[in-house]
Amino acid sequence: MVFLPIMLLNYLVNMNQEYFMSLALAEAKKGDSPYGAVIVKDNQVVAIAHNTVGRDSDPSAHAEINVIRRLTAQLQSFSLEGYTIYTTGEPCPMCAAACVWTGIAEIVYGASIEDLIAANQAQIEISCEEIIAKSFRNIKVVKGILKQECLNLFEQQK
What we know:
By secondary structure, the protein is α/β, with parallel strands linked by helices. 46% of the residues lie in helices and 18% in strands.
């Protein structure tokens, strides 16, 4: 059995996170605003979506909600235990709650809610970690993956 040094393992994990976030960034460019989301299980992309709030005249059609709807419909189950969601912006309270209700194991985001507010994005100033802390789930949160690339998209929208 080969044991990889911890630094190499951390590097490989970070490379995977950056790859999946780059997919969310590419998807975000298709949306009404620069929010893209990817759901991954066992290092495989299983669903991808973007924001369609304007197109659908649906204030709940955030990228995270759209990707969760797509995957749960495909699975015919609302349980997403063991899945990771990657999103260009930190999930708003509605999207964070959807992650709680579905049992998503991990949330990985690029730009924080504070970053989004600074980029003139309308936000409810409650972090996804605050929502999770008050819930019945223990969801891991990873912040700032490809943060600058995500912020660049939001800045371009101004």
